[in-house]
Amino acid sequence: MTHDPTNDRPSIAELKAVAQPPEHIARYNAEHWAGALYIRHLSIYATRALLPTHITPNGVTWLMILTGLVGALAIPFGGLVGPVVAVVAMQLQILLDCSDGEVARWRQRFSPAGIYLDRIGHYVTEAAIPVAIGLRADGWSLTDPGDVGGWTVLGLLVALGVLLNKAFTDLVHVARAKTGRPPLEDVAGTARPKASGMAAVRRAFDYLPIFRAFVAVEASILALAAGVVDAVRGDLLGTQVLVVAMVPLIVATAGGHLLGVLASSRLD
């Protein structure tokens, strides 16, 4: 449908028709489950509130980046306050992550810089969370800084795995662009392994999505659950167990992702 991109006060129906087109919401990999479940129902109202401020789509993305980073940095705070702040911040981050694109589609303002900043936001947040969990496991916080040790080192190693795992996705697009191939369609078929054995393994992981432990929303919830265990016990065992568990999980996630990319048609 045609619309006036300078109109800063559209109705919700008008805005939804342009900013939340079905083909965008139906993307296979790009839409978080929380988006379809409840965030998209809220983000359209946030987007409508943002339009009269004349904030740019990239400005909304910067807010998304800042919110995610603040949420991650809150995790090492003692007690349950830090993890609760992190959970709330990651919910707000995903809402802003929806709204930046909605603002861009309404105003018809698209740029490589916006996609670039969006990727940076997810890289920074999702790598910062395991580092913050490691710091918490070492008893470190912004209000009570001290020496850090092995738990933080493990958190850093997990963060490295998270960055590699995300790079494995983005490098597919780099490799295709450098060889003159068209952009990859965001549909299930492109991610399906060609070998039947690998396809069976992938289907098994669909039922046990361990990769979600390293997505900001789920990672913050895990940090909160560990914090509850800490609070009940009066120590940091819950967070320490979480750090230990994250190490083999990120190895399996990143390793499986790399094998999945090489075994699929994404590089054909």
TrEMBL record:
What stretches pass through the bilayer?
60-86, 148-168, 210-229, 241-263
Keywords recorded for this protein, A-Z: Membrane, Transmembrane, Transmembrane helix
InterPro entries to which the protein is assigned, alphabetical: CDP-OH_P_trans (IPR000462), CDP-OH_PTrfase_TM_dom (IPR043130)
Q: Which domain of life is it from?
A: Bacteria
| Transmembrane is among the record's keywords | yes
Q: What protein name is recorded for this chain?
A: CDP-alcohol phosphatidyltransferase family protein
Q: What's the source species for this entry?
A: Terrabacter aeriphilus
Question: Lineage of this protein's species?
Answer: Bacteria, Bacillati, Actinomycetota, Actinomycetes, Micrococcales
